[in-house]
Amino acid sequence: MVSPAEQGQPNGAAVNGTNGVNGVKGPDRILRVGIIGCGEIAQVAHIPTLNFLAHKFRITYLCDISAEALAHCAGKVPGAAPKITTDAAELCASPEVDVVLICNADAYHVAHGVLALQHNKYCLIEKPVALCFRDIDLLLEAERQSQGRVFVGTMRRFAPAFTDAVREVGGMSKIQYARVRDIIGPNAVFVDQSGTFPHKFTDFSAADSEDRARREADIFEQALRHEFDVPVTPQSQRMLRVLGGLGTHDLSAMREIIGMPQSVAGACLTFPGIFSVLFRYDGYPVSYECGLSNVPVFDAHIEVYSPDKIVRVNYDTPYVKGLPVTMTIRERVGNDGYQERVVRKTYQDPYTVELLDFHRCVVHRESPKTSVADARNDVELFRLILKADEARYRATPGQENGSK
């Protein structure tokens, strides 16, 4: 639940009541952005991309519990220095903020999303927006009472190659099989080569650390014990965290391209390492492989098979700007012919496309496709996956790493 200090009061000066920094309404309006969370993702992706999109956005407020992180990120914003605060309620209430970007620790996503909505502001919340149904429903209720909306930051779904693939798959007469894979090397390798030179800071109090730990423990208890009926162990908590982090990208995109599965036929949740899930769809299986490797490569794709066509979307690391997302189509031609096409429509990265769509949703007062209601399906998939291999978490000590 949101504490009284976090609740704030509705603010009539919402995004639809102001004209942004350039005094212009409509699609040419510059939105003033308040960012909550000045950690790695803000430094590597969001702040640079918002700066590049200066004709659409301007960063006017930053919030973090680290004074050093605030000073560092404020120095990354060109022009007038943004205001800084350690109080998310102050940022959300500010008339100098039109929209809120929430990219701090997962445990605060819902509380700060509710704050933004209470002030009738659209907010982009980094994935996972929530890990349990209770918190999803808190955001849905806050949306019902707000002029604002939540835009969930699953940026892979905005890549033009992916949206093209959705149309290609939609034209298939029959799907035989699909594969979803996301096996990546150490993220630090990609971050260190991103050219953004992020910094990590530790100037926060013991009380801040304790508050975050308390919130995380509450979320795990709610999700695993009360909603999923899965034992709460360090291993099950880690698995839920991985599904909410890396897994949200894959499962959310899978749902958009082929829909929700009927059930989970089986799962082998061997994490840390690489785990596998087999989904049952109407007449065909879908395999999901995900995990971490020490080999510094980024192996992420979605591939859908029909009798005469195979459509694949290939993703590279989003932390190195400009690496293309491509669509490969392999298909039968005539009786015995074959052709393969690799389509790279653009070098524009998914974070940029996502923010442009966020801007469009805000100025036209539209609901995004990556909504809170849509994200509720991800939580249902987390539940199904963890239940499929729950015996792993009921094992005696020493058996958690593979033996049942």
Question: Can you describe what's shown?
Answer:
With 404 residues, the chain is of the alpha/beta class. It folds into 2 domains: 4-156, NAD(P)-binding Rossmann-like Domain (Rossmann fold, 3-Layer(aba) Sandwich), CATH 3.40.50; 157-349 and 371-394, 2-Layer Sandwich (Dihydrodipicolinate Reductase, domain 2). Helices cover 37% and strands 22% of the residues. α3 links the parallel β2 (57-63) and β3. The longest helix is centred in the middle third of the chain and has 25 residues, at 234-258. The radius of gyration is 21 Å and the shape is globular. Mean pLDDT is 93; it is low at 1-18 and 399-404. InterPro entries: Gfo/Idh/MocA-like_OxRdtase_N, NAD(P)-bd_dom_sf.
Overall spatial form: globular
Q: Mean pLDDT across all residues, rounded?
A: 93
Outline the biggest β-sheet: 8 strands, mixed
Rg (CA only) = 21 Å
Estimate percent helicity.
Answer: 25-40%
CATH architecture of the largest domain: 2-Layer Sandwich
CATH class of the largest domain: Alpha Beta
